[in-house]
Specification:
367 residues, alpha/beta, Rossmann fold, 13 strands, 16% strand, globular
């Protein structure tokens, strides 16, 4: 069977869908990766995928401009003629579905998260919801990564409940992200891994650091992730540099492999405003690290308060500071216990094989 996998970046396909691709290929399926070209496009080709370049701006939200994406994807789908298309992320979910419908190709969609258009409201949010409502009449199945997102779509009548299913994010490869001994750092190390945009709670993290410094908490605060100034909610490099110069954070940049950084951290922090299923937290929990994150959809599915980490209030740097201080003051054994419980939770719920089996079953149903 010919299967197309469509995402907003080749990097995303390679880093988050590699296990799925390998499993589908091992079962004799021909895979075509459809995404903008980046340094990971060749890796997909080397893996044995066909590759189709598409023009897609994952940062912006201009429905009129983006409608041209439907035409581009239509041409790609008509040329490749896949038997089924797997769409991930917002724009493929909407515009890819329109293109697939025009060619009567069955589509399976995955809502990886709601994105900034849902968080911020306004006319763009209204248009995005209307586009979802139009597009989501056509897929065979739409997968959601947490029940809160699915219920929101159903409640706002953007989708019929009978085509929805839940899946635990992209899952996690438990053999790649293995538990490691909790470090005994001379200076307690908090690590935030995220793209540097407002909706990941970066400013709340900085506010919390300032409060903790005033309290005399002696800790290191590391930030790992790409600066994305072109994103409409991106944080300017000048602002990030000011935090570095002020000594508030250690900026680690963007790296191809986060495991060593997680291994060397005492606690992972993600004060995000909303997630599908945050990959950062899955990786941290899988490596047996305690976590501080917000009590919002996605995050509170991975972290259970006072079990494998602590939950804090949304958009509240004061509460984030209090929660980070609470983690800081735990005994080594308590934090170790949190980490081991997180690993057990991931093994039970978020094993990548659960996600892969779900997709193989869905593909077979539409074949």
């Amino acid at each position: 069977m010919k299967i197309a996998i469509v995402l907003n970046t080749s990097w995303n396909i390679y880093n988050f869908r590699l296990g799925l691709i390998r499993s589908l290929m091992n079962h004799g399926h021909e895979i075509t990766a459809v995404a903008p070209h980046d340094e990971y496009s060749q890796k997909l080709i080397d893996l044995g995928c066909n590759y189709e370049k598409v023009t897609m701006d994952s940062r912006g939200a201009n429905p009129i401009k983006d409608f041209g994406l439907t035409i581009e994807l239509f041409r790609i789908y008509r040329r490749v003629r896949p038997d089924v298309i797997l769409h991930f992320t917002v724009k493929p979910n909407i515009y890819g579905t329109f293109a697939a419908r025009l060619l009567n190709i069955p589509a399976i969609n995955n809502v990886c998260g709601l994105g900034t258009v849902f968080l911020n409201g306004g006319i763009v949010s209204f248009i995005a919801k209307m586009l979802y409502k139009l597009a989501f009449r056509y897929p065979k199945t739409v997968l959601f990564q947490n029940y809160q997102d699915r219920d929101l779509f159903i409640d706002e009548k953007l989708i019929q409940e009978n085509i929805t299913e839940l899946v635990p994010g992209s899952g996690i490869n438990l053999k790649n992200f293995i538990p490691s001994a909790l470090p005994r750092n001379k200076k307690f190390t908090f690590l935030l891994i995220s793209r540097l945009i407002l909706d990941k709670g970066i400013f709340e993290f900085i506010g919390a650091i300032k409060k903790l410094n005033k309290r005399g908490i002696k800790a290191r605060y590391q930030v790992l992730g790409a600066i994305d100034e072109e994103h409409r909610r991106g944080i300017p490099a000048q602002v990030i540099n000011s935090w570095i110069e002020e000594g508030l954070i250690e900026y680690l940049g963007r790296v191809p492999d986060v495991r060593d950084y997680i291994k060397n951290a005492d606690c992972i922090v993600l004060p995000s405003y909303r997630e599908g299923t945050p990959r950062t937290l899955l990786e941290a929990a899988s490596m047996a690290r305690p976590i501080v994150t917000t009590n919002v959809a996605g995050c509170n599915n991975v972290v259970q308060d006072s079990y494998n980490g602590f939950l804090c209030n949304l958009m509240d740097s004061q509460d984030l500071a209090d929660t980070m201080e609470k983690m800081y003051k735990l005994s080594f054994e308590q934090r170790k216990s949190f980490g081991l419980k997180g690993r057990a939770h991931v093994e039970k719920i978020y094993n990548e094989n659960i996600v892969i089996d779900k997709y193989k079953d869905l593909v077979n149903k539409v074949a």
